[in-house]
Design goal:
Length: 684
Amino acid sequence: MDNIPVTPWPPVKVRKEGNGYSILSWDRIYSLRDSVLFTSVVSHGNEILSAPMHLTGSENGMEIEWREQNAFIMEETAQKVTICASQESSAFIVNTCLETEYDGYCAIDIKIMPRGKTVAEVFGVSQPKPNGYSLDRLWLEIPMKKEFASLYHYYPSSPTPTCADGRSVPFSSVCMSGCIPGSLTMPFKPLLWIGTEDQGLVWCADSDRNWEPAHPDKALELIDGPDVLTLRIHLIDNTVKAWNYTGEEGLPKNYVYPPLSFQMGIQATPVKPFPKNPYKEHICHIDCFKKVEEEYDDYLSRPVIPDSDESGYDRLKRLGVTTLLIHEKWNKIQNYWKLSETTRNLVKNIVRECHQRDIKVIPYFGYEVSTLNPRYSEYASSRRLNPNHIYAGGWYRKPGQRAYTVCFHSTYAKDMAEGIKRLVEEYGFDGVYLDSTLQPDACINGEHGCGFYNVDGQLHPSYPITVLREFTRNLYEFFEARGGIVNTHLSNCCNIPALSFAHLNWDGEHSQTYINAEGLESVPMDYMRAEYSARNFGIPYELLAYTFENWSFQDSLSIGMVHGILSRPNDMGYPLELMSLIWKTVDRYDFEQAEWKPYWNNHVFPPESRVRLSYYETGEEGRKRYLVFIANPTDDAITDITLKLSDYPVLIFSALQQCNVEAVLRFGPRESDVLLVEETGQQG
C-alpha cells in the first residue's frame, strides 16, 4: 500500500507554480504562494478562502512583518506530499511542515523561535542587529468566503460558544451543529467544521499544547464580516510565558528560548465522492435498544414474529435486508476479538445462514476494554481518564463484567485493529461496526501518553484525533480490498479526519432522546442540515431511530428522509416491515445520473413552509423521473398545505400512504411519504 492510495481516491499530486506549489487531492487543490501556509483552498471547483491563511502577531511591541518566505518539496509519493517552508521577521523564524494526504487531510506543524545570530554575526564579520525577543501575540487566521461558511459543527459540545453580545449559545443535545449565529468566541475545541450543506473546511488539533490565550474561553474566535468569516486561533495572546527565563544572566535569549511548536490539521470537505446511490445497503441492526434475551443464532433460527412459521433468517431475506448487524452480545467478552469455544460455532452458523441468503454479516465493536478480557491487567493502562480524574465508562455487561472506555492513544488500538482483521479472515465477516469508537474524547491518562501540563502547571487533556484517523485507515484499507464495510456510529460528533475511512455512518442517538423529552421542534432544521446532510462530508449517513413513549420509528422518517437519509431498522418487527416498503420504492429508481435537490435548494415550497420536500431528478425533458421525500417534521398537523397527486403526470408508487393518482396528501404531525413520479410528456 506504499505507492497506491486506497479507493476511491487517486494519487495525490503536486505541481510547481511560480513561487509556490499546488497540491491536488481528488477534487481539492491546496496552494501556497510566497507563504508558509496555504494561500488557496479549492473544493468542488470553488475557492473557499477569501484570503490566504496567515500568521499575524506582534514582536517587541510592533506588528510582525514576514519576509524571506521559502518553500520546498520534502517528499512526494502517491500517498502524501510533504512541503517544508520558512519565513522570518526581524526577531523570529517560523518553520512549517505541511503534510497533505490523498484524502485531503493536511497535518500542519508550526514552529516559531528567536532568529538568533547569523554565522557572520557570530564570528564578528558583520555587526549583529540589536533585536529584542519579545513575542507579544501570535494568531493563525483562516478567512473563508461567507458563501461557503454558513453552518458549523464543533466538538465537544460543552462549554458552548459565546456570541458577540455576550450571550452563550444555549446548551442542549443539538447545540453543536447549526447555523453560525454571527461572531463567536469559544474555548479550545479539538474539532471545528465550517461550511454549507455541500462543502466546507474542518480544523482540528489533538491538544492545545503550547497555546497561551489570554482568556481560555476565547481560544477560538469566529469573526463575522460582510463577506468573510474568519477563524482566528489564539496561539499566543501575551508575552510568551514559556520564554520567561529566570536562570543565569547573560545567556543569549536566542538560545535560551526553545522553539514553540503548534500541531493541527485541516481538511476540505467533502472528503471523497458521494455514492451515486447512498441507499444501496439495506441494514438491519438487531438487539439495539430492544434487547434479545437469547443467543442470536437461536433467535434467528426460529420465527421472530408471533403466529408466523418464517424463521428470522428467512424474514430478513424476504424483507430485502442486504446486511445484518449483530450487536454487542454476539461475543461473551465485550469488545474483544477472540471468541469463546461455544461462541465460535454460533458465529459460524450465523455467517453461513446469512451468506446462503446473500446477506452480509457485520459484528459490533465499540470503545471499551472488559474486565473479563484475559489481558485486562495489561490493557488497564489504556483506559480513558476523564479530566475529573475518573475513569470513563464502567458499564455492567453480561455475562457479569465491567467495561471501561478505552483511549485509542494506546497499544490497545493497534491490537484491536489487528484482532478484528484476524477475526474477519477466520469467520468470514463482511465488515465491522464501530460504536462510538471514533469519538475523540478528552483523556489525561499519562500512563499511555495523554494529558500535559501547561506553563502555569495546569493539567490539560489530549484528544486522540490523529490516532483514531490511523486506526480507521488501517481497517478501511483492509476492508476496502475485500469489498467489505466500515460502518461507524458517531452521535453529535463529526470526526471528519477519521470518517474519511468509513463507508457509512450512523448518527442520531443523542437527538432521539432529546426529541422524546422536548418534542420534535426542539431540533432545528439547520442542525440537521449541518450534521446530517452527509454530502457536505462525503460519507453516507443513516439515522438511528429509537422508539420511546413520545417518539416512534416512523416519526424518525419525518426528519431523516427530507435530508436524504433513511432510518435503520433495529427491530425485526414493524420497523423492518416499514423500511422494506421504502427500500422497495427506492430500489426502483435509477440514481446513476440523478441530481439531488433538497428542500433548502429546490423552491418547491417557500422557506417558511413547515412541509419539507426533497427529491432526486433524472431523465430528459418530458421524460423525467423523480424520487420524492416529503414530510411534516413538526409536532403539529398541517392542514393549509396539501399535495394533490393528480397534479403530477404519473404516480408510480407511494411507499407509506398507498395513494393513487387522485389522492391528496395532508400531513399530520411527523408524517412523511416516499413517492416515485414519472413524466409522460405532458406538463406536470
